[in-house]
Amino acid sequence: MDNETPPSGIPTPPSGTPVPPELPEDDSQRGERLGRARERQMRRQQQRTPMVQPSGARRTTRQIAPSDRFKLPDFKFKANRYLLYAIGSVIFIVLVVVVLGRLRNDPEVTPPNSLWIGTEWTYVTHDEATMREYVQHLRDHQVGTVYAWVSWLQEDQSWRGEANFDTVKTFVEQFKRFYPEAQLYGWVSLPNDTGGIPYRLDNVGIQQIVADFSSRVMDEFGFDGVFLNIETVWNNDENFLVLLRKVRAAVGDNVQISAAIPPDWSPLGANIPVPPLIVPGTIWDREYKQSVALLVNELAVMAYNSGLSDPADYSVWMAYQVKTFAEAVDALGGGTEIVIGIPTYGAELPGHDPNVETVAAAVEGVKIGLEQAGDAAALVRGLAIYAGWETDDIEWADFKRAWVTG
């Protein structure tokens, strides 16, 4: 990776929690915004969920006939058997053409899992043989959604790596040609209150810059959706919701928006293992999770960097994340999908120990969480691997064995 490498995407809670300023908003404005968000949520749910007939309704194939019935007169004729054979052959050919047409036009199903990829793909041109081989690798592991790196907003409010944007466009065209059934999201990052960059989500100008660039990612680069990686976002930060609304207004209601979401790092009183470092503001209220879910199409929960020291504890912690987010979104009636991020990157102590947060332990926790979530588990589409440039052959094999085929 060169000096254009994106920020790690690995959230690390700082030692203190600033209180972000809130924008003034009266009850009528808030109600109107929630109403619009819920309308979008209902439309997404209708697109995902088939109409269900009420349990008390009876199905019938009998047509209603008028009370004054009548009989068609009987016609007797002698048909030429060869003419009947010809008509039958024509009908058979028409049926075959219709069936084959329907089979040909049926869209291929997008595999359920996701992957974060970086500049090793989007800032570098690859030949078609390499791309074809890579796409087959993704299909073999049921990875159908890719968060492809585009840029991050620097402190001077310019986008990093702009000289490589033409190469990004080439990658998008090439990838979509070889993997048309996949969903390709443009990964846009805004470091905030982390890595030496101060809190800046309250900056109206920066909010608009991110919204405008998200629109550019769709219109100019040709991505299928926008993947927003805003770190760090504290509990009940209204400015994050404002940003999401501006992005939605910029890209339109029909564009897919996915957002990287921090886990509940240290939920006290939940009867699960918690890391030694307890940081206030890193546990999102149920209502705040729902407010974010109403504004996006997908929540990508970054369920790693737990700070735990035992794989079994990590599995329990992971299960809690799955259950908590699934139940929160399910209470809205669905409409927003969830993917659970699992780690394959190197050691980032004290948050991430790769000997603790293993693929096997992560998958085990996800399975437990899905079972605990009950019907709400249906909202969890799959797993999201962080990150493509870090995942080795052993981890890919573990993922396939534990999740894809297991």
The top-level CATH class is: Alpha Beta
Total number of domains: 1
CATH architecture heading:
Alpha-Beta Barrel
Q: Can you summarize the main beta sheet?
A: 8 strands, parallel, barrel
Write down how many β-strands occur, each being a DSSP E stretch of 2 or more residues: 8
Distance between the termini: 33 Å
Task: Give the key terms.
406 residues, alpha/beta, TIM Barrel, 8-stranded parallel beta barrel, 11 helices
Describe the structure.
- The chain has a single domain (106-404), classed as Glycosidases (TIM Barrel).
- It is α/β, with parallel strands linked by helices and 406 residues long.
- Helix content is 40%, strand content 14%.
- It is globular, with a radius of gyration of 26 Å.
- Helix 6 (204-219) packs parallel to helix 7 and helix 9 (311-330) runs parallel beside helix 10 (359-373).
- It contains eleven helices and eight strands.
- The chain has an eight-stranded parallel beta barrel, surrounded by five helices.
- The longest helix is centred in the first third of the chain and has 25 residues, at 81-105.
